[in-house]
Amino acid sequence: MENASKALLIAGGVLIAILIISVLVVTINIINSNQKTREEALATEQLVEFNQKYEAYNKKALRGTDIITLMKMAIENNNKMEATNVGEQYFINVKLILKNEYKSTKTTIDKATGEKKVEDKGEKTISGKISLGDWEKSGKLTMQDYVENLFGESITKKTETKDKIIYEYSPLANLKKAVFTCTNVTYNNNGRIIELEFEER
Are 92 and 180 found together in one domain? Predict the structure, then answer.
């Protein structure tokens, strides 16, 4: 009789232990599932926020100033991504299809007469298809270097002497007046924007 009651107590203890372990396992699974759901929600929120910044430029009419702002955003993003682990990087490319040619120009204003003289500097010009292109460092320019090399370090440079004011405009400064239409937005497999294409109107 004593042995039977001991056996029942042991069986009851084992049963309670199994129940406690089962409850713990279920609780841990629920916590892990909630954590995973929160992480997925955060990733989705970050993706939407990232895309919204660039989707704002998916318009039928944009000024060159908007395109320059977008290019600066893309450069800033891509420069950050160069320091990020492979597989976690998300680069942005901006392509322009230009109908006109944009040159470096120099405007000289005579202080005494107010007369303006505009001349072509003949240094750098941009035309045709322009891509912010290759951000890889394998023997190629980084995006920041590419833009500085193509458009000049400063968009507009002002020099003043006793009798004249001289404004030097890079091709990018002259591009500010152009009007563009967004013709294509490309997303990667995860739904993140990787490229925007614009055509000059």
Answer: yes
159 and 65 within one domain: yes
Per the CB < 8 A criterion, the answer to whether 38 and 157 are in contact is no
Whether the per-residue pLDDT at 65 is higher than 60: the answer is yes
Digit-coded pLDDT (tens) for 27-44 = 887 777 777 777 777 778
Boundary-marking domain end, from 14, 29, 55: 55
One domain, residues 86 and 177: yes
Strand, coil or helix: 42: helix
Q: CA–CA separation, 163 vs 68, rounded Å?
A: 33
Q: What is the CA angle 7-9-10, rounded to 5?
A: 65
Is pTM beyond 0.85? Reply is no
DSSP label of 100 = S
Q: CB–CB of 187/193 below 8 Å? A: yes
**Euclidean distance between CA atoms 88 and 146, whole angstroms:** 23
Residues 73 and 51 in one domain: no
Residue with tokens 């890889």: 136
Task: Count how many domains the chain has.
Answer: 2
Contact 182, 117 (CB under 8 A): no
